[in-house]
Design goal:
This protein is of the alpha/beta class. It has two domains: 184 residues, no CATH class; 176 residues, 3-Layer(aba) Sandwich (Rossmann fold). Helix content is 43%, strand content 18%. It has 16 helices and 13 strands. The strands form two sheets. The protein has a seven-stranded parallel beta sheet with strand order 1-3-2-4-5-6-7, with helices on both faces. It has a six-stranded parallel beta sheet with strand order 10-9-8-11-12-13, sandwiched between helices. α13 links the parallel β11 and β12. The radius of gyration is 21 Å and the shape is globular. About 4% of the residues have low confidence.
């Protein structure tokens, strides 16, 4: 098993570093992310360990040091990283966001709290891995420092991977043309749980054989005014009626809260007459999150990871789109028909039609899901081969 220690803050001379003892010749990798459930979001709680799982699967058990993206990363930190690590991995996650609670964007404009000068001082291999452009519809643009910072990072990175092509297009507008051309597409690693976690793949297959019909439903209430607009009660009432329609078709409804605030949907479900159980995953660990989604048949939700985690376990998905990233992902996997605008007046009928397709053409729908998830894995394998070249090693996953 790979080794890891945690860096939280301050200049390197003050850090309580742990000595790791991995396999002989193990890569020493510094991982910048939102670690140890710092933002109490089930998707991110799972995401960052899965990044490391993928790198370990590709390159053998690595020696990991974890650094919070929100902690200052300045010139001394860059010098320390250059001297002590074989590579720097930044991501994944929707880090390209200006207003995440807990983060200080003064140095960079986004969630990695590093100065432009520190990024320019990096000399070790840098892989930006599966991050996302997470500005909401109608949200203010990034501060001017963002452009300077992201251009410096593009120059410093040997691999700059974004988790959907929509993010590539959006971020490219801040870069010089030659920099934008080097941006790569790397899906969120939660979309390849099937290949990385044998025990959860087995649990998913066992659930399939049980003949149940469990629908995990996730609503998202962060920045609700940007998601639902001025008619939020009408929009959410319509969403609740769509869930009621699924119940009438024989689906067992489980509300899956990735953050406790997601339970704000419950009064709307009650009003619509929906019978449901609630699983609050806010403080669940990575294994619990995967175990939950392995045992559902359909995930319908608004959060990106309420879509990508079940997809990574080959669970059917229906996306309720209140953020462009949901559409970006479906476009990339070739199934835009799996998503519906949350404010669509015809949402109930559209969801009902999709449920009918899932029920009447189960084999065809499953074949499309399996093929799409396998394509994601093949793309990921090719990117890990590229990163192996950057790190002067070879990926065990092939190209």
């Amino acid at each position: 098993m790979s080794q890891q220690s945690l860096v939280t803050h301050g200049p390197p001379t003050l850090l309580p570093m742990q000595t790791t003892t991995g396999r002989p010749g193990a890569l020493r990798l510094l991982h910048v992310g939102v670690h140890n459930s710092a933002n109490r979001n089930a998707g991110d709680t799972l995401l960052f360990p899965v990044v490391r799982r993928l790198f370990d699967a590709a390159f053998g058990d690595n020696d990991w040091t974890l650094r919070q993206a929100w902690s200052p990363f300045l010139g001394l930190d860059a010098a320390d990283a250059n001297g002590r690590f074989d590579g720097l991995v930044i991501g994944g996650g929707g880090l390209l966001l200006r207003d995440q609670a807990g983060s200080d964007v003064g140095n960079s404009g986004w969630q990695w709290n590093s100065s432009v000068e520190a990024v320019q001082a990096l000399r070790l291999p840098v892989a930006v891995f599966a991050i996302g452009y997470n500005r909401f519809r109608g949200q203010d643009d990034f501060d001017p420092v963002f452009t300077d910072h992201i251009r410096a990072l593009a120059d410093a990175s040997g691999f700059f991977g974004l988790r959907n092509h929509g993010s590539i297009r959006a971020l490219g507008r801040y870069l010089q043309p030659a920099q934008a051309e080097r941006l790569a597409h790397q899906y969120c690693p939660t979309t390849v749980i099937w290949q990385l976690y044998e025990q959860h793949r087995a649990a998913a297959l066992a659930h399939d054989a049980s003949g149940q019909r469990v629908l995990a439903f996730n609503a998202a209430f962060d920045r609700a005014h940007l998601r639902f607009g001025e008619n939020a009660d009408d929009v959410l009432g319509n969403v609740a009626r769509a869930v009621r329609r699924a119940q009438e078709r024989g689906w067992r409804i489980v509300v899956a809260a990735h953050k406790t605030m997601d339970r704000e949907i419950e009064p709307h479900l009650d009003k619509a007459g929906v019978t449901y159980d609630t699983v609050d995953l806010t403080d669940a660990g990575p294994e619990e999150v995967m175990a939950f989604y392995a045992r559902v048949d359909l995930a319908m939700g608004m959060r990106g990871h309420a879509q990508m985690i079940p997809f990574g376990l080959r669970r059917a998905v229906i996306s309720l789109i209140s953020h462009d990233k949901m559409r970006y992902f479906l476009d990339d996997i070739g199934h835009p028909e799996w998503g519906f605008e949350v404010a669509d007046a015809q949402l109930v009928d559209r969801i009902d039609a999709q449920l009918q397709r899932l029920e009447t053409d189960a084999a065809g729908q499953r074949a499309g899901l399996d093929a799409a998830q396998d394509r994601v894995w093949q793309a990921t394998r090719a990117n890990m081969a590229r990163i192996g070249t950057l790190l002067s090693t070879q990926s065990h996953l092939g190209a």
